[in-house]
Specification:
GO terms for molecular function: catalytic activity. The chain is an alpha/beta fold. It has one domain: Alpha-Beta Complex (Amidase signature (AS) enzymes). The protein is built from seven helices and seven strands. The strands form two sheets. Strands 2-1-3-7-4 form a five-stranded mixed beta sheet, with helices on both faces. It has a two-stranded antiparallel ribbon with strand order 5-6. The radius of gyration is 18 Å and the shape is globular. The two termini are 28 Å apart.
Length: 212
Amino acid sequence: MFPTIKGDLGNTRGIRVGVPSWVDWWGEAPEEYSSLVERCVHAFENHLDRLGLEWVKVKMDLAERLVWRLFPYIRLAEAASTHLDKRESWGECFPDVRRLLEKGLSVSATEYINALATRREVYTELKRTLKGVDVLATPTTCITAPRISEVLGREDGAVRAVLTHNTVYASYIGLPAISVPGLTVDGLPLGVQLMGDRNTDRHLIELVKTLE
């Protein structure tokens, strides 16, 4: 039997939203983005209030400790493996893409296997968390989009890690996630990301229809 969201999907009342503790990471974010990350999180929380959603912060210690350390091993190794038969053409890629592919070649088998195996522990923590809430919600991106001139030549640097930070979790343990427009900061979009348990895709879509 597939898991379901328990609240009334035709009404936001009764839908319990969990905001994971790992969104409050501005103290660990690169210094040039730290204050913007914090401001965007507060804007996100105010947005949830305006939507009339019942939400709480949920502590996810295991995810905080492991996900962002281990996910790069999977992402980099699998990207390099997927494109390995075209390695002679890597020089034609944009420099940031080529650098990421080359990093994937340095991931060891033990690093990759450990990163895969640890997903089970992280997913178990999610199951415990979802006993108290129906969905997880975060800003889709931690910051608003930077100007091209601010990141040109260093697209695979700090800005990539910051922009993708909140979408890593669902990718790591294989959760359905959807980004809902409507949240902006300084006139630029952030979006609200909703994540549910595995096999709750349809329920997430129904919830989004309610929010729209």
